């Protein structure tokens, strides 16, 4: 990586003369006389010495951003642990008035917070000296640690994605966190670089993916390293375009001016301009008069890149674009990371529906309904006991004045207002999360960027796609929409070193959502645009047998049914309460008649809830039977699980890790089986299952899944 604004030691181009042992730049050999240059020079990559390896440091904001990030935690800890005991001690001693004691406690809290921030900044300043990363010939290397040294080396060809995450403070500063994920699973931590300048983060992404492509084209690691040192910043973009088009890259001995002509224009504002390509040097050898001229070196023309489809837009795209263009204080110039051949976004309707019908909103509504039901039952019981004279006369008169329906109405209104407020906050948060959402095809990878306040950019290579998943929630089914995502192999990140990993959670989910609210009839179009390698034509040609319907009703209504087991528990409770005599209630200070009335109301209400639950579960079982099935062709297998929500999972045949058919004794008696497809998705094996498929169909699929050289992958 070279350029006037690039941090680190400049990369020296490959030279046929050996480098010094100290790693100093090799001075070019002085020009030789014409007689000495009459013979053509024989240069090959094997004779070239690899370019020197640069050390790249993180941005200096790494030091003081650590102190800013610790302020909220330090403030909370100080307020909770310091202010109450200190205020109590000062008040008990009576040395100072209460107001002065509180003021002194707050001042000490601020001082404690500043001290903790200062300590954090000092530790970060010392750690900053021992953190750097390098682009070595065959792998990306990361070094960190003061006492416990850690060296992480990730081969370029094992890197799955290079993601960028930017918080609000980082956006203002102009830095981001870069996470390099591999397919190593939870045992291999992903590398996380904090406080990387945005310009440098974009260069890291471009550098890694271009090195991967050069290695995939057949070049050795040393040749790739020398080639990256030789190519100019702008020329690398055209080199990547040539590689995408399948044009072979010339060896390092071929001059770059003949192999990679500069692009016609770089008119995008803020893009890094390509360096001027030097003219071909004039040969120093003498040419006899009339001798035929040397053939001109062929040039490679840049392949035509199809124009990207115009993505949908919404009202939040402009604020997101403005926030993205504001690269912060130290953001630097924008670096082009490759041509986009397809792009899709969210329109206003899709954004609104995605925020309105999210899983969080539905969970809040369900919780509110349950809370309102139990609150109403509790109030009815309390009012009934109060009206029976178990308290003083004044409270009895107040309770009598409030009718039960009126109190239930007040409680319902309060719960409804709370639900609306929480739902509105969830709606606003979801809109900000999906603001500026764009999914695109860039080179050999799919990238997704989203977020206004904090921005996340994640991607994956096409060859890392484990599955294509189409999910529909209940509301999406009613509206004819779905969520489209790609399954991927992710890397876990256990917290081994403070500066080597991002958090104790995984750096990415096992699915890359490329559209959160897509019209169902547009799935094939979007899949063909983002991943034309996966033209899905497989259909679920094998529906479930009629025996599966009966088994689904038994399984979902009885064995796994919430309503059934709730009815059992309510019956046991009612049976236990019925054996208690009235004397026991009187001794407890309760009126037997009021207790019986309250218990009866509660039991009847719970039984009604059980009946409603059983009806919904039975309908869901019938929907699952009608909508589920599986199918396969020469390239893919598809599993469909229906119901109130629906999931369609398409797995490429060459991504299946384990394929099996499972049958328990009851399934053997019914001549059905469970189809299991295991891929490498997630930090562990991902199981995709379909229960109670016909055994003959399952065995036919198993025979298809067994690898054979005669079958097409």
Description of the molecule:
With 713 residues, the protein is α+β, with helices and mostly antiparallel strands. Among the domains are: 61-128, no CATH class; 354-434; 539-544 and 628-713, Pleckstrin-homology domain (PH domain)/Phosphotyrosine-binding domain (PTB) (PH-domain like), CATH 2.30.29; 550-607, no CATH class. Helices cover 43% and strands 18% of the residues. The chain is built from 21 helices and 20 strands. The strands form four sheets. It has a seven-stranded antiparallel beta sheet with strand order 6-5-4-10-9-8-7. Helix 2 (83-93) packs antiparallel against helix 3 (98-128) and helix 11 runs antiparallel to helix 19 (592-627).
Task: Please give a quick description of this structure.
With 713 residues, the chain is an alpha+beta fold. The chain is 43% helix and 18% strand.
